[in-house]
Amino acid sequence: MLRTTVALTALCTALSGALPDAAEAGRQDDTLRVALAEEILNLDYNYTTKREYIIMAELTDATLFELDPETQEFGAAVATDWNWVDDTTLDVTLREGVTFHDGSELTAADVAYTYNWIVSEESEAQAKGTIERWLDNVEVTGDLSLRFHLKSVYPLVLRDMAQRVKLRPEGAYEADDGSIDESAMASDLIGAGPYKVVAFEPGQEVVLERFEDYWGERPAIENVVVRNLPDIGTQQAELMSGGVDWMFKVPLDVAESLGNTPQATHLSGPDLRVGFLVLDAAGYTDEEGPLTNVKVRQAVNHALNREEMSKFLIGGSSEPIHTPCHPAQFGCTEDIPAYPYDPEKARALLDEAGYGDGFRMDLWAYRDKPAAEAIAADLEAVGIDVNLRYVKLASLNQARAQQEIPAYFGTWGSGGTADTAAIARVHFSSESDRNLSGDGELTETVLAAEKTADPEERKRLYEEALTTIAEQAYWAPLFSYSQNYLVNPELDFPLSPDGLPRLDESSWK
Amino acid sequence: MTMTDADPAQTDPTQPHAARSAVAATDDRREALPPTPRRLALTRAYGHGGLLIGSTIILLLILTAIFAPLLAPHDPFAQSLSARMLPPVWSEGGNAEYLLGTDQNGRDYLSRLIYGARISLMIGLGAASIGMLIGVTLGVTAGYFGGWIDHAVSFLLTAQLALPGLLLAMALVFIIGPSVWVVICIVGVLHWTYYLVVTRAATQRIRSLDFVAAAQAAGSTPGQVIRHEILPNLVSSIIVIFTFELGIAILAESSLSFLGVGIQPPMPSWGLMIAEGKQSMFYRPWLVVLPGLCLFALVIGANLLGDGLRDVTSPDGRN
Amino acid sequence: MFRYILQRGALALAVAFTVSLATFFLLNVATDPAYAIAGEDATPEMLAQIRETHGLDRPLASRYFDWLGGVLTGDFGESYYWNKPVAELVASRAPTTIALALSALSVTILISIPLGALAALKPNSWADRFALGVAVSAQAVPNFWLGLIMIILFAVTVPIFPVSGDDTWLHFVLPAFVLGASSVPAVMRLTRTGLIEVMDSDYIRTARSKGFRGMPLLTRHAMRNAILPVVSVLAVQLGQKFGGSVITESIFAINGLGRLALESILGSDIPTVQMLIFVFALVFVAMNLLADIMNAALDPRIRIG
How far apart are CA A249 and CA A261, in angstroms? Predict the structure, then answer.
């Protein structure tokens, strides 16, 4: 401990020497400096997917609806009123006095343009796949009123509108000569969010300034500078020298060590991300393989010490789970069979299944190496000879697409959506290569839950699906994640229950 | 302990660095013909400090690797999540049960370091052998037959040197799947140029000598000539290169493992251990320092042994 | 001489293209860029969208020939990840790596030539042994580990230099040392050998008879002759510095070509990897060619071969 303290003190002096009033810097010029490891290369969230871009879009963009993180309900934002005419027709009324960053007034024509553009043939937007699943077209019915025509019944319309489509002024994706330019907003963004973009150096820095004509509650801090610092070591050094006020995705050990110094505060917030093992029950890798036997899959479930992994390796607000979804998600009932940690029982089940001498299994993983190793060690302890393949995400995904993976340690963040649909569809629909269950009936149940708007019916369908998954032990659910932040002690950064960092809600203490 | 590098061949900058000193080694070998009495070599060996230090280090590490199960106080794979990241015994919070502390999964660091010697040596010896097989085959063939074969081999050599090994390693690990054997093969396949350059030059030289011409005239096939006349004369320089390549292969494995494309967890590879410790090296520097020191010791041992062997096998080695 | 250079230049280009072909197929077999672009929580819809956007749904061979055709007209394509022309990307990162490579080479020269001279002055002396010790150690130390140790020692324990980054010249000191150290053994040994050889020659005996001794003799007379082969080796070493920049730049978070290469490989950004490997291979063969020419200029016999 003494050595640690000495090293830390040295680190602190080193860094504070460079910038004398380090911790005060952010507060003094009312600038929140944010470190992101992932490079920001495109400011238009309609064309991007990763979480860092969601964080950016929270600052710069407006949407028709917004999630209330407390109630997990989607409610008014740019839209003030909405009304289902029938199952596939939605009327929306817009707020008066909303302006874009370029000063123009937001009208129904802008909203219709944005949505129709995204589902159009030529848009190539990242948002297209999600939206075109249900949206046929949008019709302008008045200055501030619109009508959405759906292709089919879809329960998550408000979610998709709140999270996937950022509003743009009419003609945003057209060049001056009228030709199409789908990257028009990538660096010269016109949004209607609480901050506007002042300067943007792709992969380096985004400078934001409070938008004084913002229609909602204006943020407390005037300036936000987002710096791309891919190296976690650099981020730490910058945090301690005052070059950065906020960093996230901090490994637990680093967060705890640095959080103990006066230069940084460690915050641990909830996260909708869950970790789990997916087992090849369908026998894609080996038709007669051990994992096709339900007893073997149940043995795997009994073999894992989820409590210890959650407590020591993930930490913070992480909890062990036995559901194939985050318990905070709509429809994710915990009232399904569980397999408590019991290595003896696991061995007995393996014995019953005819694998008393164990078997060899490739286990793939791409993140949280200590957890992956802990899983492997637990499985080894009950006699399964695990060959851990810790690879880059792209490699894992590709091997899975080629059906070469018998078991993998996966995680899923549900895009911050507190609804079981956001995790169930992608993992159990028949066209998804993540679905190793081979269970067609299960797929039908999961998809049926997205074809009705009745919440009780949806709950019932999910309970049915989750019970099947648990009984058949298609997965071995592990734990929920927690999000570790390190922030300037002067900064008041409220944590959202859904785990999405909302930087516009920060203020100085 | 001096160097035997007073040789013009070594100043040829067209050859890669590693190959140059080996060219020197073979050319020393030329002076070594006819072979010096074994006794003389032994006398030189005893007086050679570097050779003694190098062979002692290598011997100790080989013994550590062989007797790892007896030496290691714990099972290197046994985790204890509640006892993770313990500091070494001399730090506050240290525990005599774990002399060098524990890693991020609560595994005994000392035991993992001891087992790490096995991995490094296995990969070093395996990869240096594979490299030898490829390099010597190509080198002798190119040197003996010359002509278009020689041009083709030269082209292969330049392409190999220009190709980033990391990329090749990543792709191969993905396609074949990682295991100790795959890493051995990959490192071996990436490290044959040194053997090639040396054996080609030496073969060209030996081929022009009288006794080879005599053998050819007597009706020996190329295979026979290579086996009986050429290879025996290459043995001592190949051994010297092998020792150097041992060190180079061990470093290559550690770099690959450090970047996450070599040895897979939970195997205790020193390079992988450094990568695992890197994240918290500001607070727990020993996690990075200790495996690095082990690597350093092993490689310096191999290099001193190589230097020493080169000096000893050549009578002019101590001028 | 001119023909010789032409021949070697053609060989260099052939090597660069062979390497690019090999890497293209290896990369495409090994990873699917769509997954890397889409990130952790990719849905099948996103992947399909990305494949269409980047033309990844087309056959491999036609993509390679498209790439080759582009290169021949000076167009290296567009990065999947950065969404801008690869040539622009490489051009913007190149100065940093060139600066790093040159400063690393300076470190090599500053350490190895004085050390080599010191060793050559009195072979078998303690100074010679010390120089040899330095060379043997530098050869045995893992480069990535040396980088981390330098950070722990000189950026954290005794905070003189920044931990990482590339904003000021101070940021380059540690990386240049680490990258430069790897070439010290080769250059030091060559300097020492060259000097010992020259010191035995007739004209040095003449100089000695005129009363020159020790360092003045070495630096004024011997070094001039011994240095030429060293210079041509330095050219080769400079070429290797570019490849060596991959690990060093990653450890010190320097935004140069090496780090770009590693990130592009890990992120399956094939067009970027393709151009970088092409550039690295060209630099490597060009530096070797330069060394060959210097050598040929020194030794007329080589020209024939």
Answer: 19
With residues binned 3-state (H G I as helix, E B as strand, rest as coil), the percentages for chain A, rounded to 5, are 35, 25, 40
Look at residues A166, A134, A149, A133 and name the one whose alpha carbon lies nearest to residue A66: A166
Q: In this structure, are residues A144 and A200 in contact, taking their beta carbons and an 8 Å threshold? A: no
pLDDT-derived band of residue B27, with 50, 70 and 90 as boundaries? very low
Contact: A373, B79; criterion CB under 8 Å: yes
Q: Quote the minimal CA–CA distance from C82 to chain A in Å.
A: 6
Interface test with B, best of C193, C198, C230, C280 (most B CBs within 10 A): C193
pTM here is 0.83
Question: Which superfamily does B47-73+116-313 belong to?
Answer: MetI-like (1.10.3720.10)
Domain boundaries, chain A: 2-43+184-268+486-508, 65-163, 271-482
Chains with 3 or more CB pairs under 8 A to chain A = B, C
Task: Tell me whether residues B279 and A372 touch, CB distance under 8 A.
Answer: no
Mean local confidence (pLDDT), A472-483: 95
Domains located in chain C, CATH noted: 2-72 (no CATH), 90-304 (1.10.3720.10)
Place of tokens 């036609």: C62
Residues forming a β-bridge with C218: none
Which homologous superfamily is A2-43+184-268+486-508 in? Answer: Periplasmic binding protein-like II (3.40.190.10)
Ranges A191-195, B7-11, C297-301: which has the least confidence = B7-11
CA C67/CA C76 separation, integer angstroms: 7
The β-bridge partners of A482 are: A270
| Burial state string for A197-228 with b = 16 or more CB within 10 A and e = fewer than 16 | beebebbeebbbbbbeebbeeebebebbbbbb
Given this structure, which CATH class describes domain A271-482? alpha beta
DSSP letters for B102-138: B-TTS-BHHHHHHHHHHHHHHHHHHHHHHHHHHHHHH
Residues in chain A within 8 Å Cβ distance of B276: 369
The Cα of C152 is separated from the nearest Cα of chain A by a number of Å equal to 9
Which residues of chain A lie closer than 8 angstroms to B277, CB-CB?
none
Over the stretch A153-172, which tens digit does the pLDDT of each residue have? Answer: 998 899 999 999 999 999 99
Question: Which residue's entry shows tokens 């350093």?
Answer: B296
H helix or E strand, kind and range, residue C293: helix C270-298
Q: What is the DSSP string of A73-91?
A: EEEESSEEEEEEEETTEEE
Please judge whether A398 and C32 are an interchain contact, meaning their C-beta atoms are less than 8 angstroms apart: yes
Optimal mutation site among A252, A257, A306, A373, interface B, most CBs of chain B within 10 A: A373
